[in-house]
Design brief:
Strand content: 35-45%
Strand order of the largest sheet: 4-3-2-1-5
Structural class: alpha+beta
CATH class of the domain at 149-250: Mainly Beta
CATH topology of the domain at 149-250: Immunoglobulin-like
CATH architecture of the domain at 149-250: Sandwich
Distance between the termini: 140 Å
């Protein structure tokens, strides 16, 4: 029995050994070493940028400086006080009509808005004041603040030619209010009753921006001096005997 088992086991072993013709090869891991010369070639071949720069460093620095300047300008506007024309209309100084002289020498200017037997309520530029009549020495009326324009006689130059009249000069605002759109008008006359023609010119004075956006430099603040010049031409048929001049102006709130 044992001999049969042994023979069977031997036969199976021979059959299995002959049927397995595939070879099993186990390879060891081999580390790939790149020579140094090849490494240098690898890095040198990638020196150029994969994405080329479209702007240079100088362009980027210029843009940074430009952005910085805009930020600084914006910060300045945040701290700069601004007043528009609508707001300026609301800030109106009261009209001064009276001047009060007190017993201690104090002078108060304003407008009487209420009066009793003992006191006077006065609207001044800084608010309302109650004045006891016992301390008031005198009350005087003040002329309203209006422009008062006059010619500076020593600066007036008028030269008449055969067919022209050239004039120039200066005017001064001696009033207490600004004069707007100041204009000089010359009228030429042949005789005492025969008017020939007239011409005008705006003075060169202070610049003012009005609430409607109009800008004019033909304005004169109180105490300011403006200048003008003009040339008037006429033909031979016109006989100019004399001329007159006048000042026209407006005043705008």
């Amino acid at each position: 029995m044992k001999i049969k088992l042994y023979i069977s086991f031997l036969i199976c072993f021979i059959i299995i050994g002959c049927g397995n013709k595939d070879e099993v090869v186990i390879q060891d891991e081999v580390e790939t070493i790149i020579p140094e010369t090849n490494i240098e070639k690898f890095y040198h071949s990638h020196d150029n940028e994969f994405y080329p720069l479209k702007q240079t460093m100088e362009d980027l620095q210029y843009q940074v400086n430009n952005l910085k300047a805009r930020v600084e300008e914006y910060e300045l506007t945040l701290h700069a006080p601004t007043l528009n024309s609508e707001l300026l209309k609301l800030i109106k100084a009261p009209q001064v009509e009276h001047e009060f002289i007190l017993d201690n020498g104090t002078i108060i200017q304003g407008k009487i808005i209420n009066e009793t037997a003992d006191q006077v309520l006065v609207q001044t530029r800084i608010g309302q004041l109650k004045l006891d009549k016992a301390y008031i020495m005198s009350i005087e009326n003040i002329d309203p603040l209006v422009p008062h324009l006059t010619f500076s006689k020593q600066n007036i130059k008028e030269k008449k030619g055969k067919n022209s009249l050239v004039v120039s000069g200066k005017i001064i605002n001696e009033g207490g209010r600004r004069a707007d759109f100041v204009r000089i008008i010359y009228k030429l006359w042949e005789t005492d009753t025969k008017f020939l023609f007239s011409d005008s010119v705006f003075v060169s004075g202070n610049s003012v921006v009005y609430s409607n956006g109009i800008i004019s430099d033909a304005c004169l603040e109180p105490g300011a001096i403006g200048s003008f010049s003009m040339s008037m031409d006429f033909n031979d048929s016109i006989k100019v005997s004399y001329w007159t001049k006048d000042i026209k102006f407006d005043f705008v709130e």
